């Protein structure tokens, strides 16, 4: 199947596919204190976002574990035997990096210039700062977030779109906390959370908000309630997220690829072909546009995770022309993980 044909097929509705087969000092959102940019958020490496900029340092390559970046993976023998350390990837990938003082400083700066009706009180600022401190530290000695703090975070996340991004950064970090995950991703509240994040992900929206909404969705996978919510809203979320492949921002592309990968991981052991069809379709569609190697790598891992040990999903991927679409990445040597992972996906499809 030709490259041109694969573009056409990726736009076939999911239901049709299913039938076919069954038949620095600046505030940077998401940036931690790790100077290398590769540690606190091992999967994104140095992926940094500065509002209004699309700059992003590529993640280091040539590592034993491409998801943690630890150890050397440079053995010629290992590459020759194509040891599959890449997929299936079934544990969620999250965006962990944070610089709490800079987030709060930016929040205070924006609050100073906010319209009077949106200005936050000193008490509200202190509450948000306390919440951020708790959710930033894995083993924080502080008491868990209170219902009042969580409710306040939810309320302030509806700040005007031009100034809400530091609040979204707090939300991104907060949903990893079990208490916040349960409160905001529960049955009633969860749909509201999804709808709010989807509204921020509009293609014509602000890149900082699009990025942080995507990263928040990725981090929701870290809790049981978040996973259940995202799986129940999977069709809508992935459809909206797929539209962001057209946004020219490599960090958004990395977050989009991570979201698809997290869905693929959750679906790996499930016989839900229609859901897997959507993952394959979104990944294939994104690969038409995405140029960043880290985003491409994550999409390849998502494809590999989706087809691993699933003959029907493999048939579907072949019908989509995935093999011919990704074959150009099989010779990528920098970073080596792209070429190696691609070869393993192609192997799984033959």
UniProtKB/TrEMBL annotation:
InterPro entries linked to this entry: ARM-like (IPR011989), ARM-type_fold (IPR016024), PUL_dom (IPR013535)
Signal sequence bounds: 1-23
Bilayer-crossing regions: none
Taxonomy, superkingdom: Eukaryota
Domain named PUL: residues: 85-348
A matching Pfam family: PUL
Gene3D superfamilies, alphabetized: Leucine-rich Repeat Variant (1.25.10.10)
Keyword entries, A-Z: Cytoplasm, Repeat, Signal, WD repeat
PANTHER family the UniProt entry points to: PHOSPHOLIPASE A-2-ACTIVATING PROTEIN
This protein's name: PUL domain-containing protein
Phylogenetic classification of the source organism: Eukaryota, Metazoa, Chordata, Craniata, Vertebrata
């Amino acid at each position: 199947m030709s490259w041109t044909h694969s573009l056409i097929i990726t736009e076939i509705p999911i239901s049709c596919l299913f039938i076919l087969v069954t038949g620095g000092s600046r505030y940077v959102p998401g940036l931690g204190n790790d100077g290398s940019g590769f540690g606190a958020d091992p999967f994104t490496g140095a992926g940094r976002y500065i509002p209004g900029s699309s700059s992003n340092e590529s993640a280091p390559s040539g590592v034993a574990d491409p998801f943690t970046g630890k150890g050397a993976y440079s053995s010629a023998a290992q590459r020759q035997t194509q040891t599959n350390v890449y997929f299936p990837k079934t544990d969620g990938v999250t965006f962990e990096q944070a610089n709490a003082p800079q987030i709060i400083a930016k929040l205070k700066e924006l609050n100073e210039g906010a319209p009077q009706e949106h200005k936050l009180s000193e008490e509200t600022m202190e509450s948000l700062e306390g919440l951020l401190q708790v959710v930033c530290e894995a083993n924080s000695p502080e008491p868990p977030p209170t219902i009042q703090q969580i409710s306040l975070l939810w309320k302030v996340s509806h700040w005007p779109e031009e100034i809400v991004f530091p609040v979204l950064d707090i939300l991104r970090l907060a949903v990893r906390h079990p208490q916040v995950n349960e409160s905001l991703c529960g049955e009633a509240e969860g749909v509201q959370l999804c709808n709010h994040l989807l509204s921020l992900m509009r293609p014509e929206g602000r890149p900082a908000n699009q990025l942080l909404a995507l990263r928040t969705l990725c981090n929701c996978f870290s809790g049981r309630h978040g996973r259940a919510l995202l799986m129940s809203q999977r069709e809508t979320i992935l459809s909206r997220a797929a539209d962001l492949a057209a946004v020219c921002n490599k960090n958004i592309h990395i977050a989009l690829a991570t979201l698809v990968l997290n869905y693929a991981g959750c679906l790996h052991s499930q016989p839900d072909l229609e859901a897997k069809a959507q993952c394959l379709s979104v990944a294939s569609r994104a690969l038409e546009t995405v140029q960043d190697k880290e985003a491409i790598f994550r999409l390849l891992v998502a494809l590999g995770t989706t087809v691993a040990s699933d003959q029907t999903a493999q048939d579907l991927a072949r019908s989509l022309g995935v093999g011919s679409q990704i074959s150009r990445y099989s010779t990528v040597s920098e970073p080596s993980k792209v070429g190696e992972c691609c070869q393993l996906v192609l192997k799984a499809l033959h």
